[in-house]
Write a structure and sequence with these properties.
It is a single chain. By secondary structure, this protein is of the alpha+beta class. A 6-stranded mixed beta sheet has the order 6-7-8-3-9-10, sandwiched between helices. α2 packs across α3, α2 packs parallel to α4 and α3 crosses α4. The longest helix is centred in the middle third of the chain and has 18 residues. The radius of gyration is 27 Å and the shape is globular.
Length: about 475
């Protein structure tokens, strides 16, 4: 029996559309009464997951347990959940009262009980005295309150909310965030909330599930997600970040931006490539002559209302974003300090491009469906091999036709003195590129691997 502390347990859930995997082995547990937010960019699978919880889609693999019972095949109207959609889906021919009461009337609930419950939920959503109003005369925020009232009046165990505030203007969205948090506290039921808005997720949630490309990247409290990201995607997606290549020299000592720093991280090994994250508010900036760890020159300074946002080019050629209450003039030389607790070290997902293939002849290798020239190997045609090429040796071209193969810039990450790109080929293979050239997400590029930079090994050799 599933631990009853968890009202929902999603186990090994997968879903594909037209051969493309939209959800890939999802595992999430939700505690009763918790406010859980599914957070990620458009197309990451969060709405698909919500629709599967609601029963509008069936999983290809895996199970959904609610109160320990498998509901994977249970139709939507038999699940103890209600959904609030981005588009309010109110009945325009009914007033506020009848919109909210609609579900109870269908169930044959007595009129007296309906009246009591409608007035109670309208009070919760701050819509008392609006019972007789035409819903089309209401503002967007008021319509969304009616939509939420209609959902919670049925007393669901779980309320699913699919980007319910995205159609509102900024001020109304902020106000509704506060009201949603208060509603959750009053109702005591489980909220599962979908958004792509990081600030909204940090404001509302007890737990955040960060998703990307159909996979869960990290699950944790807002503080955990912000302060302890597990990979560069989470660090870049949640808030502002400085992300650098680094080398973990040994336990509690890391090298990046041309300097060695004490840190609190352990267990990575010695001389291991890592990613290092520094939040802009965690870089201490000061006048040059005050015992700084490293120095640089201020290139921009912008007032952001609460703090100043500055960019500093270090003497070692790295750009750092800094947020501070004090302004430093553009062109001035400053000192900087980064304290051990403010350095977040993360394991790299990849340290080199690695592709399996086979030799066409002793100096040509077939990888990613194409033949590439490579150094003379002495291997016979047909020999199974692994080909490697460093990120900074991949050559990109503006014209697709100039490449041995082509792809689309699928993701990009600024690393302080270069860009780290993910180029996805037509067949769905990823090529990682370090470059000083500026590309945009969605750009189509040609890809070449210079022959002298390809490293070829037999497949059974240690790599």
């Amino acid at each position: 029996m599933e631990n009853q502390e968890y009202i929902i347990s999603i186990q090994n859930l997968s879903k594909s559309f037209d051969g493309k995997k939209v959800l890939d082995d999802i595992n999430i547990k939700v505690k009763s009464g918790e406010f859980v937010t599914l957070l990620g960019p458009s197309g990451c699978g969060k709405t698909t997951l919500l629709r599967m919880l609601a029963g509008f889609l069936a999983p290809d693999e895996g199970t959904i347990l609610m109160d320990g019972k498998d509901i994977s095949d249970t139709p939507p109207n038999h699940r103890p959940v209600n959904t609030v959609f981005q588009h309010y889906a109110l009945f325009p021919h009914l007033d506020v009262y009848d919109n909210v009461a609609f579900g109870l009337k269908l169930k044959g609930v007595p009129e007296k009980e309906i009246d009591e419950r409608v007035r109670k939920v309208l009070k919760i959503v701050s819509m008392t005295d609006y019972e007789d109003r035409d819903v089309e005369s209401l503002s967007g925020g008021q319509q969304q309150r009616v939509s939420i009232a209609r959902a919670i009046i049925n007393r669901p165990k779980v309320l699913l909310l699919d980007e319910p505030l995205s159609a509102l203007d900024l001020k109304m969205r902020k106000d509704m965030q506060i009201e949603l948090k208060e509603m959750h506290k009053q109702l005591g039921i489980t909220f599962i909330y979908v958004t792509h808005d990081q600030e909204e997720a940090l404001t509302l949630s007890d737990t955040i599930v960060v998703m990307n490309e159909g996979k869960v990247q990290q699950i944790g409290t807002p503080a955990d997600i912000y302060n302890e990201p597990v990979n560069s995607f989470v660090a870049d997606f949640i808030g502002d970040s400085n992300i650098f290549n680094g080398i973990m020299l040994e336990d509690r000592k890391v090298s990046f931006i041309g300097h060695e720093f004490e840190c609190v991280d352990e267990g990575f090994g010695e001389n291991v490539p890592v990613d290092v994250v520094i939040r802009p508010e965690d870089v201490y900036i000061m006048n040059q002559d005050t015992g700084a760890q490293f120095t640089g020159k201020v290139t921009s300074c912008t007032f952001k209302g609460v703090h100043y946002e500055m960019y500093v080019n270090t003497d070692d050629g790295f750009e750092i974003q800094i947020q501070d209450y004090n302004a430093f003039e553009v062109g001035s030389t400053v000192g900087m300090i980064i304290r051990p607790n403010d350095i977040q070290v993360m394991k790299k997902d990849h340290v080199i491009n690695r592709f399996e293939g086979q030799m066409t002849d002793s100096s040509h290798v077939n990888i990613l469906g194409e033949d590439f020239e490579c150094p003379e190997t002495g291997f016979e045609a047909g020999t199974r091999v692994v080909a490697e090429i460093p990120f900074d040796k991949v050559d990109l071209t503006d014209e697709q036709s100039d490449g041995t193969l082509y792809g689309e810039v699928h993701a990009l990450l600024y690393k302080g003195n270069h860009y780290h790109l993910t180029v996805r080929t037509e067949d769905g293979d990823d090529i990682f590129v370090d470059t000083n050239d500026v590309w945009d997400k969605g750009d189509l590029v040609g890809v070449n691997f210079p022959a002298q930079d390809l490293i070829i090994r037999k497949k059974d050799e240690n790599v």
